[in-house]
Design goal:
Blueprint: E1 3-10, H1 16-31, E2 35-43, H2 46-63
């Protein structure tokens, strides 16, 4: 039994259909007899929004 690490995010998790495709791939890997670690990162556009928010907080903290 192999340990397989799969990483998904960005456009791969941008829509419900794509999220279902990711889930299918994870299940297929598991059903093939492997242990699976699935790493899921932010959906498309979320990381940029978080960076913008962090920068806004940083700017605000410098004003006070």
């Amino acid at each position: 039994m192999a340990l397989i690490v799969q990483k998904y995010g960005g456009t791969r998790s941008a829509t419900p259909e794509r999220i279902c495709n990711v889930a299918r791939r994870i299940l297929e890997t598991q059903r093939a007899g492997n242990q699976v670690v699935a790493v899921v990162s932010a959906m498309s556009g979320v990381t940029n929004n978080l960076i913008d928010l962090a920068n806004a907080v940083l700017e605000e903290s410098h004003r006070t």
